[in-house]
Design a protein that fits this description.
The chain has about 200 residues and is an alpha+beta fold. Helix content is about 15%, strand content about 30%. The protein has a single domain, classed as Methylpurine-DNA glycosylase (MPG) (3-methyladenine DNA Glycosylase, Chain A, Roll).
């Protein structure tokens, strides 16, 4: 069942980041569908220094974060990796969840073509830049509604209980000072697709 806007517009981005574990991210391009179960997320809020919209600072790059929850925020990291985020909260409040890793469930052959030859099959989608390449996600999907047909999320019925969730600090945001230590990264314990 496709997630509705009500799921995204809630005001607790950390709770949403936890609840996205086990949900399935889909893309459809030229009739080709790929999908992966989300196994790793990170929460970002305008109130903390790890966020692109810290202090409610709006720029051309992060403008979609200020829209009503339920949009894709896709940006280029280090000039080479596209990263996929789910915009949450009400309009004017810039919160988002970075999807860091997925376990492939549909379209594995297409994902393998997009990623090329890999020595380790688990490297296919075990990181935020890897999963976007495998699923054909780039800046063209920035600002797309997650309620439509190019990129969307579904509830597969997979229940990820608190006992199955590992909580840690987010990765690669040392510039955020004390905020880098916030326990806002969530992974499914023992899942081999979680980023290393």
């Amino acid at each position: 069942m496709r997630l509705t806007q009500e799921f995204y517009v809630r005001d607790n981005v950390v709770k949403i980041a936890r609840e996205l574990l086990g949900k399935v991210l889909y893309t459809e391009q030229n009739g080709i569908v790929t999908a992966g179960m989300i196994v790793e997320t990170e929460a970002y809020s305008w109130k903390e220094r790890g966020c692109h919209a810290y202090g409610a600072r709006k720029t051309p790059r992060n403008a979609i974060m200020f829209e009503t929850g339920g949009y894709a925020y896709v940006y280029l990291c280090y000039g080479m990796h596209h990263l996929f985020n789910v915009v949450t909260n009400k309009a004017g409040t810039a919160d988002a969840v970075l999807v860091r890793a997925v376990e492939p469930v549909i379209g594995l052959p297409e994902m393998q073509i997009r990623r090329g030859k890999l020595n380790n099959p688990f490297h296919l989608t075990s990181g935020p830049g890897k999963l976007t390449k495998a699923m054909g996600i780039d800046r063209k999907l920035n600002g797309k509604s997650l309620l439509e047909h190019e990129v969307w999320l579904e509830d597969s019925g997979e229940r990820v209980t608190p006992a199955k969730i590992e909580v840690s600090s987010r990765i690669g945001i040392d510039y955020a000072g004390e905020d880098a230590k916030l326990p806002w990264r969530f992974t499914i314990k023992g899942n081999r697709w979680v980023s290393k």
